[in-house]
Each structure stands twice: as structure tokens, then as C-alpha cells.
Design brief:
Elements (H helix, E strand, L loop, with lengths): L6 H15 L2 E6 L4 E4 L2 H4 L6 H16 L5 E5 L7 E6 L4 H15 L4 E3 H14 L1 H8 L1
Parallel strand pairs: 1-5
Antiparallel strand pairs: 1-2, 3-4
Helix pairs in contact: 1-4, 3-4, 3-5
Amino acid sequence: MTDAVSVSMVSRILVALLQQYDWLIEVTDRSDDATYAIAPEDAAAADGFLPVFLRAADGVWRQTTGKSFGIDIRRSATATLGYEVKGIASGPASVVMLCMMEAMETAAEPDRLLINDLRQAWQVEVARRPEQAAQAAE
């Protein structure tokens, strides 16, 4: 693997990919079961839904290689999900994006991507790595 991958570059590429796929991007709020449309820019924001996309990509990479991209996600009071991506320790970016595309295509329906379906990978990863969750709370 190579050096750190730019979070802003991954975000920009994800916006372009989501626009190219032309999916309706949605999230279901479990508190009221309402489903909301999400703009590609919000889906790809480091303080938006990017943590979910990156954890899903990391899950694909772990399943394939047994290794992690070393995604640094920290708690943030202002972030959409309460977490913000601060860094990606290793790449290359092309592999990160290919894994993300694999996760998205696996979760997507023909005309939409429900972020909740990616979120399952994120929740499993957070539960599996309690030391990172504790570090993020500091």
C-alpha cells in the first residue's frame, strides 16, 4: 500500500461517481421511518455520509486482503452522523475507490442507493474497533 490518500480527493471522486451512476441517493431515518433524498455532495462530505461509504469500502478491502485502509474517523458534534473523516492512512486512491464502488454496487438497487444498506458495514466496523471509537470520543 502507499502513503495517505486525500480525503478531499476521495470526496470529489465520489460526487462524480454518484452523479454518473444517476441513482436516487436516499437515507431512511429510523426514528420516524421517513426516507430522505441526499444530494451527492452531502453523501460525499467528510462530515456527511462519507464515513459510511469509506467503512463499506474498508469492509470490502478487509474481506479481500485482511488489511485496512486505516481510515481515521472521529466524533464531531457538527457532523451529520456525529462522525467526520479526518484521514485515510493508505491507498492507493484507486483501490479505495474501487472498493467503494464494489460496496455501492452490491448495496444499490437499479435506480437508487439506500445509504442505510452501506451503513450496516459501518456499524459492524465501529463495533469491531471499540478502541477507535474510544479514541474518537477524546
